[in-house]
Amino acid sequence: MDKSYLCLQNINKMSTYDVTIIGSGPGGYVAAIRCAQLGMKTALIEKYSTLGGTCLNVGCIPSKALLDSSEHFHNAVHNFEEHGIDVKSVQANISQMVKRKNEVVAQTSGGIKFLMDKNKVDVYHGIGSFVDKNTVKVSDKDGKETLLSSKNIIISTGSKPNFFPGMEPDKKRIITSTEALNMSEIPKKMLVIGGGVIGLELGSVFARLGTQIEVIEFANTIIPTMDLTLGKELTKVLKKEGFKFNLEHRVQKVVNTGKQVVLTALNKKGEEVTFEAEYCLVAVGRKAYTAGLNLEAIGLKANERGQIEVNDHLQTTIPTIYALGDVVRGAMLAHKAEEEGVYVAEFIAGQKPHINYNLIPGVVYTWPEVAAVGKTEEELKAAGVEYKVGSFPIKALGRARASMDTAGLIKILADKNTDEVLGVHMIAARAADLIMEAVVAMEFRASAEDIARISHPHPTYSEGMKEAAMDATESRALHV
Ligand code: FAD
Ligand code: NAD
């Protein structure tokens, strides 16, 4: 390393660490805590002024805050009267919703700062870039540079919204999730490119507040990577909320004309169709983010998908440099990044950690919620696995009728010969929490009959799991 510039005035003295982590999202900050717990001297670098990454600042937490607020409003307008609650006039105040959301984000991000202090992790704010394979430079917004020398380095720089030619966000009317979380008005109409998780969650926020949501989706179903049953069922639910879906549409271009956006697409017959609205939310996936890292200095290069390639231990081609979370292969989920953060910390400490990637649950926070774990029916078919299906409609549950949340189903896929549960897919109120029964059962390699024979509290949505398991076990569901 060329150390000549160490004597320059704006460079701080070099500090030495066991582990330096670049990026403070759920992957990075969890890795930092676990490294510190294991006795390693740890540094965490974050380019923004707040900790927590995409998830805490512009992802999981703010989107759920707005989903919860809009759900309250929707219930007040549509369901309170039937519950016997008379509310004279209900207005949605988007500014207050966004303000509350910002407070939730600030509290949560402040909590990460507290955890870093508690665990004696040194936090540096600035852009982290490689000088060599044991040195990272932190460049802060005032031009100050600090050099950190480290035995191990973890790259957890996350992801950014993706887009394709013709749909470049201008962040004014052609927006990404980040701008959609900070709207100052409730639009009359919003186009959403992509019927995936972000499109449907943020689409739900605005649909509940009265916005006409029109989804333009490339595939022949919404949430195309999940079990196809879920996409079909969710389509029915969201259509009732006022969503319009345009499947098998290929977006050509989106133009901001001032007060409107005009989107041109080709439908499945190849005909040109146009859509107009006040806003267009671009939600066609996210892209791994490595800008500013100066990977060239250590001879690393992102692959054609922008990701950093790693082996099964999340090591790059340089064994002391690791990468994890959204910046590497696999599901772009906060809990996946967290598991990888713990994995890398324990691996560096010489332990033998393990991650079961097949059992990372996925949730879409619409209402009712969508949740899944394990293999889809389509994956089992493609792999030639002999399977059986147990299914149970949520409307047959007493609890669902009591709360008026009757939409959805629970579907269990089990091995035809051994009865082992291979996949669980559900749409139900509280599915985000319900899915954990399936995750635990599958981690312990339970059979459908095991679940069928466990007592489930009555009246709960969890009885749907038991009934679906009974259906998979000799079609002996009781309440249908
Ligand atoms: P990130 O959270 O992206 O963090 C990376 C951090 O690295 C950022 O803070 C960035 O500023 C910093 N950084 C980048 N480069 C540098 C550098 N050179 N120097 C210093 N710092 C740098 N997942 C779920 O599981 N559940 C959800 O409900 C959910 N909802 C979501 C909703 C939305 C709207 C979005 C956009 C995403 C959502 N996600 C959700 C996905 C989740 O946010 C990501 O999977 C998760 O944040 C990935 O964590 P990470 O640590 O890999 O990266
Ligand atoms: P996604 O992959 O979930 O959905 C993208 C959708 O866009 C897909 O349905 C895809 O077929 C469609 N699409 C792709 N190209 C298109 C095109 N040219 N025209 C029209 N449609 C097109 O991606 P997302 O919704 O942007 O979310 C990004 C990531 O963030 C996901 O990986 C997700 O895991 C994560 N996330 C998770 C949660 C959660 O866990 N609840 C919430 C939000 C985001």
Topology, please?
Elements: E1 11-22, H1 26-37, E2 42-46, H2 53-58, H3 60-78, H4 94-118, E3 122-125, E4 127-132, E5 135-139, E6 145-155, E7 159-161, E8 174-175, H5 177-180, E9 189-193, H6 197-208, E10 212-216, H7 228-240, E11 244-246, E12 250-256, E13 261-266, E14 272-277, E15 279-282, E16 286-288, E17 321-323, H8 334-348, E18 362-364, E19 369-374, H9 377-383, E20 387-393, H10 398-403, E21 409-415, E22 421-428, H11 431-443, H12 448-452, H13 463-472
Parallel strand pairs: 1-2, 1-6, 2-3, 6-17, 8-15, 9-10, 9-15, 10-11
Antiparallel strand pairs: 4-5, 5-6, 7-16, 12-13, 13-14, 18-19, 19-22, 20-21, 21-22
The structure holds flavin-adenine dinucleotide and nicotinamide-adenine-dinucleotide (NAD).
Index terms:
single chain; 480 residues; alpha/beta; FAD/NAD(P)-binding domain; Enolase-like, domain 1; 7-stranded mixed beta sheet; 5-stranded parallel beta sheet; 13 helices; 22 strands; globular; disordered N terminus; binds flavin-adenine dinucleotide; binds nicotinamide-adenine-dinucleotide
Structural class: alpha/beta
Distance between the termini: 71 Å
Question: What oligomeric arrangement do these chains adopt?
Answer: single chain
**How many structural domains in the coordinates?**
3
| Low-pLDDT ranges | 1-8
- Total helices: the number is 13
Bound molecules: flavin-adenine dinucleotide, nicotinamide-adenine-dinucleotide
CATH class of the largest domain: Alpha Beta
Q: What about the largest sheet? A: 7 strands, mixed
The CATH homologous superfamily of the largest domain corresponds to FAD/NAD(P)-binding domain
Rg, Cα atoms, Å: 24 Å
- The total beta strand count reads 22
Q: What amount of the residues lies in strands?
A: 25-35%
Kindly identify the CATH topology of the largest domain: FAD/NAD(P)-binding domain
Categorize the overall geometry. Answer: globular
